[in-house]
Amino acid sequence: MKGIAKIIRDVEGHWVGDGFPVRTLISYHSQGAEISPFLLLDHAGPAEFLPSDKPRGVGQHPHRGFETVTIVYAGVVEHRDNAGNSGKIGPGDVQWMTAARGILHEEMHGREFTQRGGKLEMVQLWVNLPAKNKMSAPGYQGITNEMIPEVSLEDNAGKIRIISGRFNDVAGPARTFTPINLWDIRLNKSKTLNLELEEGYTTAVLVLKGKVMVNGTETINASELVMFEREGKGISFEAIEDATLLLMNGEPIDEPIAGYGPFVMNTQEEIKQAITDFNAGRFLALDLERIPEICFSGNSSFSTL
Asked: Omega into 149 within 30° of 0, i.e. cis?
């Protein structure tokens, strides 16, 4: 059995742009290598937005050195980047963007969603890249709800949607640089799910809806996250209420981490180079403000989406 390492509760929220009220549940700034290969997890919403004619979201901003994975549970988000990718993702859809050597993008509420208003809820996960892949070409995977295989659990316990990795003999559609299991789990009230995961992998589970008992000992509520020890394989979930869970499980990347805001590399020199490249227009900047030359403290953060 994988022991519970930490439960993250009562996280204060903040705004990213004017479209995403988020709680940052994990971050490499505070948890470091213990969350590798993951870097950051933001849970946006659930929040109700009134109808508006004014676009809401986060304007163009850069990333380098990692991937962003955006999962929409309610509402609609539109994406556009300087690699020529654009798209719209709604409930059940996933956007897997590889920033790698550098990309500029914006994330806004969908235009029709903005005009009619409604509930928005989404998750954005940052996934680290190994040093050998950090300067690879940027990429984009638009994964629609229909592309994600769904497995029904025994005893009418619920279902699992496999975004990446493999559950039993079913593989998810996302292509990853390192082994990562990302599963969207729906568990019915009073039902139990017993999982066998890879020994030595980092594992965290976010409860988005409902309430679950984990390993028969700890109750985890909505908007709370549980992190597990790497030793052991088994995890047990019992749904006290109908529950929606996001399971993140991946092979750690045992390399140094250096980060500043939207750049995550291996050394401070590489961070300085990223800022120099961006300010010199090597990201193909489109009317963006310069990033200031900064004094590196190892804790600076901005533009989390």
From this structure: no
Which residue type, as a one-letter code, is found at position 297? S
Apex 192 CA angle, 190 and 193, nearest 5: 150
Residues 6+ apart with CB under 8 A from 255: 130, 131, 266
Against a cut of 0.70, is the pTM above it?
yes
Token code pair at residue 246:
């996001």
Reference 206, options 18, 73, 77; nearest CA is 73
3-state helix, strand, coil in the chain (%, to 5): 10, 50, 40
> What secondary structure letter does DSSP report for 273?
H
Instruction: Tell me how far apart the alpha carbons of residues 174 and 162 are, in angstroms, rounded to a whole number.
Output: 9
How large is the average pLDDT for residues 153-162?
97
CB-based contact 212:187 (threshold 8 Å): yes
Nearest C-alpha neighbor of 94 from the set 76, 74, 71: 71
Q: Name which of 5, 6, 7, 45 is nearest 23 in CA terms.
A: 45
pLDDT tens profile 80-123 = 888 888 889 999 999 999 999 999 999 999 999 999 999 999 99
Strands (E), 110-242: 118-128, 139-143, 150-152, 158-164, 166-167, 170-171, 180-187, 192-196, 202-209, 211-214, 218-221, 224-228, 234-239
- Residue 222: how many other CB atoms lie within 10 Å: 16
The candidate with the shortest Cα–Cα distance to 164, out of 190, 144, 149, 182, is: 182
DSSP code at position 279: H
pLDDT for the residue numbered 294? 40
DSSP string, 61-110: EEEBSEEEEEEEEES-EEEEETTS-EEEE-TT-EEEEE-TT-EEEEEEE-
Q: How confident is the model at residue 296 (pLDDT cuts 50, 70, 90)?
A: very low
